[in-house]
Design brief:
The chain is mainly alpha-helical. About 65% of the residues lie in helices and about 0% in strands. The protein is built from 10 helices and no strands. It is elongated, with a radius of gyration of 20 Å.
Length: about 220
């Protein structure tokens, strides 16, 4: 039984309860610092319902955590747009997008780790995959396509280039989260240097750089 049973919900309020479940799970995930420490029973107690009520909306814990991460990453597109949306220079925009990705991961490390903890099974993307594909992937792909149109990136299929850049950005974020005691330097200076090196490697013309100087909050 839930510790504080809530009144029976009126007909048609299932979506509201699902949102409450997601909010409660998000709170527990961040409080506990690990998905392993979050249980369906704990979520039910936080919301004030019984565990079976959770399963009416989410088939299992993995599905619930996927919904939590997808909901959290809904703000990521606005974050990327704010960081790089008004930058015309192709490579400066790419670096700004990459640094925004790293910073978002560092600022939301628990959710970031949880979002990428499970391998996508089969060809069906998770909810989190769908959100990322409509935000990070689309933003980076647009930058790559603009670079190809401007002649600074070799023409062709932009997808391999997007995946190369994303792989590096994601790898930097994962390493900085997993090993925070390594000598990363001031703010995101090391991450910026790595991203500039990758961009220089992708460019067909020499690139002149001016440091962005992002700091970790």
């Amino acid at each position: 039984m839930a510790e504080n049973p809530r009144p029976r919900s009126p007909r048609g309020s299932g979506e509201l309860l699902a949102d409450e479940i997601i909010d409660a799970t998000t709170e527990l995930l961040i409080e506990q610092g690990s998905a392993d420490a979050v249980s369906i029973r704990a979520v039910a107690q936080r919301v004030g319902v019984t565990p079976p009520s959770i399963y009416l909306h989410f088939k299992d814990k993995d599905a619930l955590l996927d919904a939590v991460c997808a909901n959290y990453y809904e703000q990521f597109d606005d974050y990327l747009l704010a960081a790089a949306g008004d930058i015309d220079d192709i490579w400066e925009r790419a670096v700004a997008q990459g640094l925004a990705y790293v910073r978002f991961a560092l600022d939301n490390a628990v959710v970031f780790r949880t979002a990428f903890a499970h391998v996508t099974s089969g060809s069906v993307p998770t909810l989190t995959d769908e959100v990322l594909l409509s935000s990070a992937f689309v933003r980076i792909c647009s930058t790559v396509e603009d670079g190809m149109a401007a002649g600074v990136i070799a023409p062709g299929d932009p997808i391999p280039v997007v995946l190369q850049f994303w792989s590096v950005v994601h790898g930097v974020a994962c390493l900085m989260i997993a090993k925070p005691t390594l000598p990363w330097g001031d703010g995101l200076s090391n991450a910026e240097a790595v991203l500039r090196a990758v961009c220089s490697g992708l460019s067909q013309v020499p690139v002149k750089w001016e440091p962005i100087g992002f700091d970790v909050r």
